[in-house]
Amino acid sequence: MITSGKIVVLGAGESGVGAALLAKKQGFDVFVSDFGAIAGQYKEKLVALNIAFEEKQHTSAMILDAAEVIKSPGIPNTVPIIKEIIRKGIPIVSEIEFAKRYTNAKTVCITGSNGKTTTTMLTYHILKNAGLNVGLAGNIGNSFAALVAESDYEWYVLELSSFMLDDMHDFKADIAVLLNITPDHLDRYDYKLGNYAASKMRIIQNQTSEDTFIYCADDKETLKILKHTKVKSKMYPFSIRKKIENGAFLESDNIQININLNDQLTMSITELALQGKHNIYNSMASGIVAKVLDIRNSAIRESMGDFKNIEHRLEHVAKISGVDYINDSKATNVNSTWYALESVSSEVILIMGGVDKGNDYNMLKEMVHKKVKAIVCLGKDNKRIHEAFEDDVEIIVNTFSAHEAVQVAYHLAKKGDTVLLSPACASFDLFKNYEDRGNQFKAAVKEL
């Protein structure tokens, strides 16, 4: 850990600008470099703080004299400037790692291929309602570093992506949650699921016997990697398939959470604000966190019953002529789309497509065959979707804008159907991000 010298921050989004703010406050010489254009709101912050920056380029001479580099999670190690930094032996850390150095707050860290944003939000909701002095940050869109610089929380709930975990070395989670491991972002991991799984398991690095690890006992890949992983922390699994002695399980449509045998939490799944099988898992994980922190059962039940889900995750947009329109734009991988289809009981017009990250569509085939009457492709290159589902769906249509996709879906749907935007792909071929994709979808639905 460095205590003086020059900090270079690569990437000037929420994470990067937050890191620059904290580094400046700690007395470092700070330089921010972004290979793209810097958004106006972030540029204004850098100017106001008198932090030097560049955009649309990486100037080696300005970067390679750094004592340490804080890298945006979106930048892969294969880009030329990162290779140069590694060659020079300059340490590279994530914004999360850097920020944790300057707070004594404890952390609940949540990762997983699917459900991590919902679980992070639900966990934060429970803790905040219970009166804890708690902040919310990480992959959810808030800079941890900025909160550390400007606030004084005693707890943080952090959503951590595999990219963030890759650049975390000394960081320790007080409570670590691993929801699941399914193929995602394999283009960043040499198309090897084992590499991606190892990245996810970094959530428990540096934990001791005083810490907590919460994981899904039904997740095949998690169980596979746990066989070869030494875990020092207290382990609390959760399952909907089997009884768990210390953890959470499902019995007769009731969630049972056993952390303290004298104070077991029981809650009917019908009372949960979040419905669907995948959300039972998310609620169990959040419930275990709450019980570990000795939050009262009544407070946990109340928060799990009145929670409102995030935008772009199975968000009901409208019912038009008897057809439901659901925005699940945050579903950027195949597994997320499987969960979305599993949660819908009617016939589906599925809008999917975008930037394929090495997707294996086989796991969707049975669900698509059973529930989907038409696929509306939304992306520049839809060839792999056609190849994957041509034997399972009679109608597959190509579209190149959210407006066009909604119009086509409207004409294909009949009363009682659901039009589901659940792309299984990244968004940046036609949209700025998944939020932009979801917002354009909602706007197009409201025009009907």
From TrEMBL:
Annotated catalysed reactions: UDP-N-acetyl-alpha-D-muramoyl-L-alanine + D-glutamate + ATP = UDP-N-acetyl-alpha-D-muramoyl-L-alanyl-D-glutamate + ADP + phosphate + H(+)
Enzyme class: ligase
Annotated pathway: Cell wall biogenesis; peptidoglycan biosynthesis
Subcellular location: Cytoplasm
GO CC annotation terms, alphabetical: cytoplasm
GO biological process, one term: cell division
Domain of life: Bacteria
Keywords of the record: ATP-binding, Cell cycle, Cell division, Cell shape, Cell wall biogenesis/degradation, Cytoplasm, Ligase, Nucleotide-binding, Peptidoglycan synthesis
EC number(s) stated in the UniProt entry for this protein: 6.3.2.9
Boundaries of every Mur ligase central domain copy: 110-289
GO molecular function, one term: ATP binding
Family from the record: Belongs to the MurCDEF family.
Protein name: UDP-N-acetylmuramoylalanine--D-glutamate ligase
Organism name: Pedobacter metabolipauper
Source species taxonomy: Bacteria, Pseudomonadati, Bacteroidota, Sphingobacteriia, Sphingobacteriales
The encoding gene: murD
